[in-house]
Every structure is written in C-alpha cells, then in structure tokens.
Write a structure and sequence with these properties.
The radius of gyration is 23 Å and the shape is elongated. The chain is α+β, with helices and mostly antiparallel strands. The protein is 16% helix and 45% strand. It contains 5 helices and 18 strands. It has 2 domains: 138 residues, Mog1/PsbP, alpha/beta/alpha sandwich (Protein Transport Mog1p, Chain A), CATH 3.40.1000; 131 residues, Protein Transport Mog1p, Chain A, CATH 3.40.1000. Bound molecules: zinc ion (2 copies).
Length: 300
Amino acid sequence: MNSVQGKWLLHGWQGITFETPADWELAAVQGDAKKGYLSLDDGRMMRLELKWEPSKSSLAIAKTVDHHIAQLQRKAGKRAPPLKVRRNLKLVRLRGKDYECFAIENEVKAYNLLSRCENCGRVLLLCVLLEPDKEEVIFQRIVSSLCDHPYGGKVKWGLYGFYFILPEKAHLLENTLKAGSIELNFQEPEGEISVARIGLAESTLRRQKFDSWFHERYGKRLAAFRYSTEKTKFKGHLALKVKGGTPRLRGLLPILRRKEYLRALAWFCEVTDRIYVFRTISKAKDSQTFRRFSAAVECH
Ligand SMILES: [Zn+2]
Ligand SMILES: [Zn+2]
C-alpha cells in the first residue's frame, strides 16, 4: 500500500536520514558525504531522488530554484511546452533552513524541496514523484522526517531495513548492495570498519559451522592476521567473537608495519534468517569503535 497510512521505512545514507513508504527501495547511490546522489524506486517507477552538496554561495534559495527550473526547461528542449511549475508551496515548516517547496506537474507530479541548512551548510534537492491521484501528504511526511546532518558525532545508516550507527569520522570507502548481501567498508582515523548483513543464513549454517563459514568468507581478506574464534551468545542469538592481530615483525623496517588488531562479532539471527557482522581493524588494541558500535547493529 503506497499511502501515508501504510508501512514506512527509514533510510540513512551519508548522514542524511528520511522515511518513505516501505516499498520504496534504494535503487542507486553515488558520490560521498560531501556531494552525492541517491534514488529510490518501488519496482515500477522512480519514486525519489536526492542530491546533496556543500553550499557554494549565500544566494537566497529562491534564486537557486529559479536556476534549477530554467535548467530543466533548457534540458527539455526548445520545442517542449513550458513546464507547469507551482512555486513556494506552503506544505511544510522547517526550522534552521532556507528552503522552498515547488511542484512540477507533467504526466507525473514531481514535488521538490530545495534547502540549505544553517547548521551544516548542506544544500539538498529532494524530488518525490507521485502518481496523479496520490496525495501530497506523502511528500509532506517525507520532508518532515528528513534530517540532513549527524547528531552527537554519530551517523545512522539505514538501507533495505538494515540499520547501524557509526562515528561521523568514518568515511564510506566501498559498498556491495545486493538483496542477499550488504557490505559496507569504512575508513576512520583509528582504522577500518566493515559492517555486513548476509541472507539465507539458516541454509548456509546447516551445511557449515559458523566458524568455518567465517574463515571461508573472510580468510583471504584477513590473511595478514592471526586470530581465534569463540562461540558465544549475542542478543540471544548464536554468535562468534573474533580476536586477533598482525604478528609482531622482527628485523627490518618495523615502523612500516605497525601492529594492527582485529575484532569482529558475527551473529545469526534466526528471525530475519541473516548473519550480521561487525568488524574493525585498528591500530589501538582496544578499538573504541568496536566497543561502542558493534552492539548498535540492529537485527530484529
Ligand atoms: Zn544540516
Ligand atoms: Zn535478531
């Protein structure tokens, strides 16, 4: 059900969080925390596009909307009829932002928000596409839920219903986003962080023990480490604690190979039929990030 009363889902990407109807799923992501783009679709059509970048000028946001619309008109071509635009729509009230809501109506209704945040300086362009008979209340709820900066040095990430929290200083390096397997790798001053959610866990663990699954999946990538695994319980689930480090090097150029420590927690949630993994490689023996954030990965 694609309405404001149906189920809604939170999305979190690069410090921006917002809610949409639950059947709108992440379709594409580009860029980084500074400047980037994402889109969602519902399997039939594009539903939402979001662009962000740092503010380049103190130009009033209404002027930026002028430019944006002129650009769209140019893109449509000289022979295209003029865009039907409704400006300055009083659909939401936002604090701490210079913003304007406007709609462009052709075959689909595109409701837009262009905003500049006084707090973080981010400029956002949000475009929500609605079918002609759908109400603008969907747009209103999305915009009301939108938050464009981290709080308290922490960032909430949310994709396909997979939620975790990381320090703001952690920068996304690479991501694998597939229905059956999500993995995101981050770099922070202390080291590396990897967070993963892997599907079809039950049938995998019927064939294979949890620790041999871990060795098979991560062994190659962790070849430089000596580590041990220990069976445990986490959130009431079967879990695996992994601890280790790079061996101390004797002899030449020890400075080039500073010792690194590995910590990982993996658990099998039978409710969602998934394995969750939180892993850090850190220069510090006791990784702060592991201690503070490994338990913040949500399963069910
Ligand atoms: Zn902000
Ligand atoms: Zn669970």
